[in-house]
TrEMBL record:
<dbReference type="InterPro" id="IPR017871">
    <property type="entry name" value="ABC_transporter-like_CS"/>
</dbReference>
<dbReference type="InterPro" id="IPR003593">
    <property type="entry name" value="AAA+_ATPase"/>
</dbReference>
<dbReference type="Pfam" id="PF00005">
    <property type="entry name" value="ABC_tran"/>
</dbReference>
<dbReference type="InterPro" id="IPR027417">
    <property type="entry name" value="P-loop_NTPase"/>
</dbReference>
<keyword id="KW-0762">Sugar transport</keyword>
<protein>
    <submittedName>
        <fullName>Simple sugar transport system ATP-binding protein</fullName>
    </submittedName>
</protein>
<keyword id="KW-0067">ATP-binding</keyword>
<dbReference type="InterPro" id="IPR003439">
    <property type="entry name" value="ABC_transporter-like_ATP-bd"/>
</dbReference>
<dbReference type="GO" id="GO:0005524">
    <property type="term" value="F:ATP binding"/>
</dbReference>
<keyword id="KW-0547">Nucleotide-binding</keyword>
<keyword id="KW-0813">Transport</keyword>
<feature type="domain" description="ABC transporter">
    <location>
        <begin position="3"/>
        <end position="239"/>
    </location>
</feature>
<feature type="domain" description="ABC transporter">
    <location>
        <begin position="255"/>
        <end position="499"/>
    </location>
</feature>
<dbReference type="InterPro" id="IPR050107">
    <property type="entry name" value="ABC_carbohydrate_import_ATPase"/>
</dbReference>
């Protein structure tokens, strides 16, 4: 299939998400759509898949202009899409999920599960997907669930397959498996549109690269382009992708976690008997695929979720039963993984958000009254110090870009003396240029003697920041390893292997991304 997008434009109010975008997808190629979060990649693909309608422009398939008003239209034209957040029914089998929406029956109107089973087996064997048709979706790993989504699309005879941020929830080994599947699909003649913001993956798999920035196509690049060149295209300026930091000089233990156990709201053990220590002047990074207990761990440290067992001490003080406010006042700074939900109040001004946990204290508060002059003075200083791009400190934080919103959160937390900084996914949804700034400020905080605990699903971020790495899998810490541990070994530990098993296996079977 030859697919052409011509002048596609889509606005949401005053925001132009896609601005006259042209894109050509050739038969049997892997075309990477590269750009930072919010650049407009997913909006473009949602128009191609019929989830959104363009304000203007056209879609041309094999020389014929088509109108795609729904996913059903897209499927009929041979376009399939695997979304970043899967659309599977957990309590159904693989075969039952694949037959959803395309059910076939035999005598008496009974669902023909045997035919669905055969179809899954056929596609699984043809493309090397290795999926058991009778497995319950809730019982299979995330990487296999993604294969099920791909089989669903292929079962509809998709000739163009859109993969939207497909590696966001995968371990490095699962990413390698996905790359192998993509190459197999390419060889069979299927075209793939691969949406991502991860530079290593682009260079590993792309035939062509189109870069989108702020809703516009800003250039094409070859897979041989360096990460620095790709980053510059994405951001619009040169970016230093390497964090310049001296070796850590750790001092006394600040945070000590012993036997920490957290039961989530479903009754499952989210954090399982975890022991951790973080020392002053070091960065301990917690690595793991999203959903392995990292969120519950950080929330337990802040007192945001109750613990079932264990203890938490900060510089010798037992915080296990203390309130969140007490923990903040004791010297913990917190950057939550979802800044919009937990990090700021969108309708409050930039100035107000910069003193959210300080408004009771001098010089910002005086009894029941707020000292607006001091609040504004603080905001002006922080905006300059943290390079927060805003047209005014009196504007709501919701009007800022994601990177600048994150800078507001970081600026607030670093504006008071800290013993411990807990940062969960500190650069999620942030452009490459802001990542550079945020990383440098976190390292600077470490160098001031603060203990830093980072939680990240990005191995590049782990490698850039960590002095030591704790790997979590199914709520447990499977090992704490040095920061220079190879990516392959970290990936295997993220899949549950012990330190020794990961080291031996990585030597025998290096991953694709580990060689880049």
């Amino acid at each position: 299939m030859h697919l052409e997008l011509s002048g596609l434009t889509r606005s949401f109010g005053s925001l132009v998400a896609n601005d006259h975008i042209d894109l050509v997808i050739e038969p049997g190629e892997i075309h990477c759509l590269l750009g930072e979060n919010g650049a407009g990649k997913s909006t473009l693909m949602n128009m191609l898949y019929g989830l959104l309608q363009p304000d203007s422009g056209e879609i041309v398939i094999d020389g014929e202009k088509v109108r795609i008003t729904s996913p059903s239209d897209a499927i009929r034209h041979g376009i399939g899409m695997v979304h970043q957040h899967f659309t599977l029914v957990p309590v159904f089998t693989v075969a039952e999920n694949v037959m959803l929406g395309r059910e076939t029956t035999r005598g008496g109107g009974v669902l023909d599960r045997k035919k669905a089973h055969s179809r899954v087996t056929e596609l699984s064997d043809r493309y090397g997907l290795a999926v058991d048709p009778e497995a319950m979706v809730e019982d299979i790993p995330v990487g296999v669930q993604q294969r099920v989504e791909i089989i669903k699309a292929l079962a509809n005879d998709a000739r163009v397959l859109i993969l939207d941020e497909p590696t966001a929830v995968l371990t490095p080994a699962e990413i390698d498996d996905l790359i192998a599947v993509m190459r197999q699909l390419k060889e069979s003649g299927t075209s793939i549109v691969f949406i991502t913001h991860k530079l290593k993956e682009v260079r590993a798999i792309a035939d062509k690269i189109t870069v989108i920035r702020r809703g516009k196509v800003v250039g094409q690049a070859e897979p041989s382009a360096s990460e620095e060149e790709l980053a510059e295209l994405m951001v619009g300026r040169a970016v230093d992708l390497v964090v310049d930091k001296a070796p850590a000089e750790p001092q006394d233990t600040v945070l000590r976690v012993t036997g920490l156990t957290v039961i989530d709201e479903r009754g499952f053990t989210a954090v399982d008997d975890v022991d951790l220590e973080v020392r002053a002047g070091e960065i301990l990074a917690v690595a793991g695929v999203q959903g392995n207990g990292q969120t519950e761990l950080t929330e337990a440290l802040l007192g945001l979720t109750p613990i079932a067992a264990g203890s938490i001490t900060l510089s010798g003080e037992d915080l296990t039963t203390k309130s969140t406010r007490h923990r903040l006042e004791a010297g913990i700074g917190y950057i939550p993984e979802d800044r919009a939900h937990d990090g700021f109040v969108g309708s409050f001004t930039v100035a107000e958000n910069l003193i959210l946990d300080l408004f009771r204290e001098a010089p910002f508060g005086n009894g029941l009254a707020l000292r607006t002059d001091e609040i504004d003075k603080n905001a002006t200083a922080r905006v300059q110090e943290f390079d927060i791009r805003t047209q005014g400190i009196g504007l709501p934080v919701s009007s800022l870009s994601g990177g600048n919103q994150q800078k507001v959160v970081l600026a607030r937390e670093l504006s008071r003396p800290l013993k411990l900084l807990v940062a969960s996914q500190p650069t999620r949804g942030v452009d490459v240029g802001s990542i550079e700034f945020l990383h440098n400020r976190i390292v600077e905080e470490r160098d001031h003697g603060t203990a830093v605990l980072i939680v990240s699903t990005e191995l590049d971020e782990i490698a850039a920041l960590a002095d030591r790495v704790a790997v979590m899998y199914r709520g447990q810490v499977v090992g704490v390893v040095p920061a220079d541990t190879p990516r392959d070994e970290l990936g295997l530990m993220m899949a549950g292997a012990s330190k020794a098993e990961a080291h031996e296996t990585a030597i025998e079977n290096p991953t694709t991304l580990g060689t880049i």
